[in-house]
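Dear Dr. L.,

I hope this message finds you well. Following up on our conversation about the binding site, I have prepared a predicted three-dimensional model of the protein together with UD2. For your records, I am including the exact sequence and ligand specification that went into the calculation, followed by the structure tokens. Please feel free to forward this to your student if that is useful.
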Amino acid sequence: MNRHYVVTGGAGFIGSAIVRSLLREGAGKVLVIDNLLTGRESNLDEVRASIDFQRADICNYQEIAPLIAGAAVVFHEAAIPSVPRSIDDPVPSHEVNIDGTFNVLRAARAGGVGRVVYAASSSAYGDTEVLPKVESMKPSPKSPYALQKLVGEYYAGIFAGVYGLETVSLRYFNVYGPRQDPSSPYSGVLSLFMKAVLERKSPTLFGDGEQSRDFTYVEDVAALNLKAARAPHVSGNVYNAGNGDRITLNQAWQLLQRIEGAGIPALYGPPRAGDVRDSQADTTAAVRDLGHNPQFSFEAGMRLTLDWYRNSR
Ligand code: UD2
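The resulting structure of the complex is given below.
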């Protein structure tokens, strides 16, 4: 019998990219679990007829356990992201990111799932003395969100070691691309940049704009998820999901001005609490064990993303 694939948070920005990649690779049955808190059904418009969409909440074990049981792979993307959101309103992010993840792992174990690929976060590193950041470095979370994502990763490791559930954690490094929702102050910075440049408005940079990120295009992250689902002998491991480069916010805004032929100055505000200064992935382990092979340079990804925002306005 063909086992199914589950994507929690499958109506979200990253989850829906994984859904499309799975279908492109010929996955027969893809089941999406999403409570539509931050996800949108419109992210699945093109594939709606090919998937089983279930509006369900990972905080409700009884609701999700039967959907997860028997799956070949669960891609666990459902989360309440954002560092500042977790600082302003820590209870929901704690419940979803920690208790919800525990429920997904518990349901996967009880339901004999083949593997869980978990969306971890580069925020787990905090500020490190050296760059790039390697998986062997001691985590040093600086915000509730960073800690919550790290706890999920530890839980995935414990379920692998103690219960024999196959798990792989991918520490995402600032994923960007089409469908990232720019409508909230908690949105990813590049989605806010896209909206600003198209509206010919100034973005606000928190601090001096010299903080740097290893921005990673969503299709590269989706591809890595599929590889992590198949790779042998990786259970319990944690891998960086980044490009290996870094760029400052000032540089990113300037690049966007150049692409768009605009000359809009950025505004500057106070630094953000819990913010990491610099972020850059060492991708050696992901390349070696998972066959990670990112295809999109920052400029190529930015051009595709800007085109998408322009066309979807
Ligand atoms: C963290 C994680 C990322 C992912 C994400 C989910 C790090 C290094 N990265 O992203 O992997 O898990 O959380 O939410 O921890 N900024 C501005 N102006 C704005 C908005 C943001 O200057 O209007 C700055 C912000 O202060 C930060 C940078 O842009 O320095 C990126 O912020 P973000 O919220 O897009 O993502 P970040 O780095 O918190």
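In brief: Residues 5-176+217-244+282-294 form a domain with the Rossmann fold fold (CATH 3.40.50.720).

With kind regards,
A. P.
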